[in-house]
Design goal:
The chain is of the alpha+beta class. It has helices spanning about 1-15, 20-30, 35-45, 50-85, 105-115, 130-135, 145-150, 170-180, 220-235, 285-290, 310-315, 325, 330-335; strands at about 120-125, 130, 155, 160-165, 185-190, 205-215, 240-245, 250-260, 275-285, 300-310. Bound molecules: phenylalanine (PHE). Phenylalanine binds near residues 247, 250 and 281.
Amino acid sequence: MMKTKITQYLEEVNNFNADNIEALEAFRIKFLSKKGLIPALFTDFKSVPPQERKEVGQLINGLKNAVQQKIVALKEAMESASETTVSGLDLTLPVEAPLGTRHPLSVVRNEIIDIFSRIGFTVSEGPEIEDDFHNFTALNFPPDHPARDMQDTFFIEKDPDIALRTHTSSVQVRVMENAQPPLRTISPGRVFRNEAISARAHCIFHQVEGLYVDTDVSFADLKQTLFYFARELFGEHTKIRFRPSYFPFTEPSAEMDVSCNICGGKGCNVCKYTGWVEILGCGMVDPNVLDNCNIDSKKYTGFAFGMGIERITMLKYRINDLRLFFENDMRFLKQFESAI
Ligand code: PHE
């Protein structure tokens, strides 16, 4: 009689299933609480004849173990289920870590560095926080000259002036101060100007500026070097043209355009239907600049040039909004996965 009861209970326990804590608790109370079925069995056990006691005792203990194991197993199942289903995440899946990609500005900067290193230019770097001498005075900006306003400087300290560099020409001043010609170097780096942020301008951008100082350096050398550069960067059919311009540190000065690499010079909205796009400023280093940096301007001449990496990257990859470079939006960056 009692053995049949226990076997029935055991079957019930084995078949029991629960997917919520309330049902599991009801199950525990039914079997294990003070007034539950198992304590009742122990009470009945007293009336079991001595010769059956061993067997019945083992059956009851077996039942009790089965109930306890069932509870533990169902609890574990519920906990791991709640871990995997919360917000639809399966935390047991293997990790799919996205591989980083190079930023398009780095890709283009590296390409520019590569092109100039093939013709013997070294890379020089300098501080982003500069004094007035290296950013302006040495570069032939007289005090109170309006050209200082052209650069919308972020000042950090006044008298003596300390500012965020507005161009990497400051690095070239440092190079000239510390070495004598022949000098052939480019300075890539971050520069800062207090401009309203828009699709075409930002208060932080990147430049590569170049400097070549030696005996007998001429404007023809400047043109040939930049012609080589333009063809390497935009393709062998690229044409260049120079328009007169003004910079305090070069004389004569020019701006260089390349034939539009998008329409091939026929005219499109990128080149504003002119067939040309401006990519850099350049000129022959003003003798005053050489003298300011302890280089004998009677003996040496030089040329310099400077370009914005953002602008060139926009042309190369047809990007129409400069702000995209600084937002770190994965959808944008992922498009450059194959660029190296
Ligand atoms: N430093 C200039 C600028 O930031 C660029 C430039 C460099 C122009 C060298 C001429 C020669 O605008």
